[in-house]
Specification:
The structure holds 2 protein chains of 2 kinds. Chain A folds into 2 domains: 5-33 and 121-311, Up-down Bundle (Multidrug efflux transporter AcrB transmembrane fold), CATH 1.20.1640.10; 40-117, Alpha-Beta Plaits (2-Layer Sandwich). Chain A has 10 helices and 5 strands. Chain A has helices at residues 8-29, 53-62, 92-106, 122-147, 154-183, 189-220, 225-258, 263-293, 296-301, 306-311, and strands at residues 40-47, 71-74, 82-87, 109-111, 115-118. In chain A, a hairpin with a 7-residue loop joins strand 2 (71-74) and strand 3 (82-87). In chain A, helix 5 (154-183) packs antiparallel against helix 6 (189-220). Chain A is elongated and about 80 Å long. Chain B is α+β, with helices and mostly antiparallel strands. Chain B has 3 domains: 2-28 and 257-440, Multidrug efflux transporter AcrB transmembrane domain (Multidrug efflux transporter AcrB transmembrane fold, Up-down Bundle), CATH 1.20.1640.10; 36-105 and 246-253, Alpha-Beta Plaits (2-Layer Sandwich); 109-239, Gyrase A, domain 2 (2-Layer Sandwich). Chain B has a 5-stranded antiparallel sheet with strand order 6-7-5-12-13, with no helix packed on it. Chain B has a 4-stranded antiparallel sheet with strand order 3-4-2-15. A 3-stranded antiparallel sheet of chain B has the order 10-11-14, covered by helices on one side. Helix content of chain B is 49%, strand content 17%. The chains are: A alpha+beta, B alpha+beta. The interface between A and B is large, with 67 and 71 residues.
């Protein structure tokens, strides 16, 4: 039988490095809010000649307002001449430059002038999302602890599942901050929807594995807890892979057909499913064993190299 | 049988996509997917104290939001434009002129008493001349208006036909009303909205004679159904702190994500789910085929629920939908893995099926309940004032419905399909249900 759980300190090391890199990216680059959040300017422009929406998007991108910085919507019933354009807040120089640039590329147009638009701010959205995640986590923690109430120390099971979920959120946020810094990706509604989806996937995956551990504990007891956990992981491996692969298929189809407009959703889900699957084993199940064996001291106190710690068992 | 019946009913609701055979409903899509109507209102600050304009317009925005979207499930957008304008966007349907007008109206009902002699009057109509009905409370003269209504005015049918508007006074309103109606017994009480009287269905101003002292609650009778409906909405959904006028800037706009986004997503969805089905059929053979059928069943039932309850689907909602598809597959996979193990132990299909379902149940139950719990918390938070967020609600709603349906299809539908094979010649071919025994069971 494969020894999955024996390599647990390697998993912690890998997770630690990835999350550390993510946190550094978050500090260096921060998460850039897209213009769907916070203030911006909006204007309605009316071209003298019919223009394709894609041309407007391209022209704006050439002028420095790419995806995430510009939202272009056609006005229905104007035969392709009128568009509503939403951009970040602009000063007068920028407005003039935009006016000149667009005329140059797409011909003359009338504009109703820019107006400042304020909605929910990015800070508010982040705060709201954080509250939602924290409150849901507490709810899930309580439910999982209750569902595993016949196990020794049920609270640990809930805690490990939530820690593994937080792990996945951190990985996804870190990745996004990095991409934000490198390619200018911005946090938009799609991103938030994707993060919520990842949270659901992560917890679901962890509970399925915990369920098998619970069943095996009933059959084999807890004297060799590490062995029982390992056995459970091996038994659920084919399910883990099939479900993971199946979900990836749907995702790949989305990316292939829709493409660029859902880059945020697709990349977050892709990374989220990978880390969600991995963390059920590498974080949730491994932590459960570490906690049961009381290995905290060994891990935190002496800080040995993981390889040595693993051999030292 | 029941399983089949539910499917047929759902299919009739879902197809054709534009307008189902049953109930004739289409799926409602949000602004991001479908586009909608966009209206700009301008605030009239003349009656607002200087310095409080910002607060008044913020209040007006949340009132508008409530008026358009009382249930919070239709994904509207209300934004501030410049310093004194409000931009409202409503997905899909176009509003009638009346609806657009009444959105910005300040519903304020004022009560008046008839003037005697040459007193100054505020309103004049066929019933006479009227001044605001006032009373002195704590040394201050106060006018009796709908500002003192609690926000639960309701419509009540009347025995003689028609409807009446039932309202309740808050604490201060009760005192005012007690003094005023006590004084006016046998006299008439006029009801006014803006510069004119409230007009009844008989086209005459409403001015009932006070029969007895009115303390806690009252009714207004004689109004048309349309007026009662409008008033109950406008009085309940808060009162606009500042009057709003239409600016004439009204357009229908394309969706945020472009016109072809939905078509493309549907294509992508079909392709993805197709590949997925192929994969599980290859891996699980006949069981996989049954799971694929169950997946179709799942999709149709979920869409039927969305259509029936008029939920608005947005991008965030689609995220929830994808997650619930993932969980639907997962539930099936869990069951088949157990089924495989049981059949490898030498059980017959029937016995393995029951044991497999029983043993897979705890995993499906716990993971689905946890997810739904998170969905409920998200929905509750999204509806509360703590994090009023339509997006969170849209996601939570599709997730809750999707997960509930996925549990039903995995546990009931797949099992029903598989039971059809118990006792048939096919059941003896273990490899059809539990393939790869020799390779895996080393």
């Amino acid at each position: 039988m494969f020894d999955i759980i024996g390599k647990r300190f390697w998993y912690f090391l890998i997770s630690g490095v990835i999350i550390l890199a993510g946190i550094i990216s978050m500090f260096v680059f921060g998460l850039q809010p897209g213009i769907e959040f916070g203030s911006g300017s909006e204007t309605t422009i009316s071209f003298e000649n019919k223009v394709d929406k894609q041309q407007v998007v391209q022209a704006l991108a050439d002028l420095g307002y790419g995806i995430g910085d510009a939202i272009v919507r056609g006005v229905v019933g104007t035969t392709g001449t009128d568009f509503i354009i939403r951009l970040p807040e602009l000063n007068d120089t920028a407005k003039a430059a935009l006016q000149a640039g667009l005329t140059d590329k797409l011909g003359k147009f009338q504009s109703g002038g820019f107006q400042a638009v304020t909605k929910e701010s990015a800070a508010e959205t982040t705060r709201n999302a954080t509250i939602a995640v924290i409150v849901s986590s507490i709810g899930m923690l309580l439910y999982i602890s209750w569902a595993f109430r016949r196990m020794p120390n049920p609270f640990r099971w809930g805690t490990c599942a939530i820690v593994s979920m937080v792990h996945d959120i951190l990985v996804v946020l870190g990745m996004f901050a990095l991409f934000g810094g490198l390619f200018g990706w911005q946090v938009d509604l799609m991103f938030i929807a994707a993060v919520l989806t990842v949270i659901g996937y992560s917890v679901n995956d962890t509970i399925v594995i915990f369920d098998r551990i619970r069943e095996n504990v009933k059959n084999y007891g807890t004297s060799d807890f590490e062995g029982v956990v390992n056995r459970s992981l091996v038994e659920t491996m084919s399910r883990t892979l099939i479900t993971g692969l199946g979900t990836l298929f749907v995702l790949i189809a989305l990316i292939m057909i829709i493409g660029a407009p859902i880059q945020n959703l697709a990349s977050v889900l892709l990374v989220g499913i990978l880390t969600g699957t991995y963390s059920s084993i590498g974080t949730a199940a491994s932590l459960l064993v570490v906690w049961k064996n009381g290995e905290w001291g060994r891990f935190i106190g002496r800080k040995p190299l993981p390889a040595i710690a693993a051999r030292a068992q | 049988m029941a399983v089949l019946l539910i499917f047929v009913l759902s299919a009739l609701i879902v197809f054709p996509a534009e307008k189902g055979v049953l109930f004739g409903k289409g799926v409602r899509l949000g602004l991001d997917l479908q586009g909608g109507t966009r209206i700009v209102y301008k605030a009239d600050f003349t009656s607002v104290e200087p310095g409080k304009e910002g607060k008044a317009i913020d209040g007006a925005m949340s009132v508008l939001e409530n008026r358009i979207n009382p249930l919070g499930v239709s994904e509207t957008s209300v934004q501030k434009l410049g310093a004194n304008e409000i931009l409202v966007e409503i997905p899909g349907r176009t509003l009638t002129d009346n609806e657009k007008e009444s959105l910005g109206n300040v519903a304020l009902l004022e009560f008046g008493e008839e003037v005697t002699g040459n007193e100054t009057f505020k309103w004049e109509n066929s019933e006479g001349r009227w001044k605001p009905a006032t009373a002195v409370i704590d040394g201050v003269v106060k006018e009796l208006t709908s500002r003192y209504f609690t926000e639960d005015a309701s419509i009540r049918p009347v025995d003689t036909g028609g409807v009446e508007l039932l309202f309740r006074w808050d604490a201060e309103g009760s005192k005012l009303s007690e003094i005023i109606t006590g004084r006016l017994i046998g006299k008439r009480l006029g009801i006014f909205e803006g510069n004119g009287a409230l007009i009844g269905e008989n086209r005459r101003p409403i001015a009932p004679t006070v029969q007895s002292t009115i303390i806690n609650s009252g009714v207004i009778t004689g109004l048309s159904i349309a007026d009662v409906t409008r008033l109950s909405k406008q009085l309940n959904a808060g009162r606009l702190p500042v009057p709003l006028e239409r600016t004439g800037d009204e357009k229908s706009v394309e969706p945020w994500l472009g016109v072809d986004f939905v078509t493309k997503s549907v294509k992508a969805g079909i392709l993805g789910v197709g590949v997925l089905m192929l994969f599980i059929i290859i891996y699980y053979r006949l069981s996989g085929l049954m799971a694929s059928l169950a997946l179709v069943y799942y999709g149709v039932l979920t869409l039927a629920i969305f259509k029936l309850f008029g939920f608005t689907l947005t991008l965030a909602g689609i995220g929830g939908f994808v997650l619930s598809i993932g969980m639907a597959i997962d539930a099936n996979v869990l069951i088949f893995e157990r089924l495989k193990e049981e059949m490898w132990d030498g059980k017959t299909l029937g016995a393995a099926l029951e044991a497999g379902f029983r043993r897979a149940f705890s995993a499906i139950w716990d993971s689905n309940i946890t997810t739904m719990l998170a969905g409920f918390i998200l929905f509750w938070l999204g509806s509360s004032s703590i994090i009023a967020s339509d997006m969170a609600k849209g996601f939570a709603l599709t997730l809750i419905v999707g997960v509930a349906v996925s549990m039903f299809t995995a546990i009931v539908v797949t099992r029903t399909f598989l039971r059809l094979f118990v006792g048939t010649a096919l059941a003896r071919h273990t490899s059809l249900f539990a393939p790869y025994q020799r390779k895996k069971n080393v």
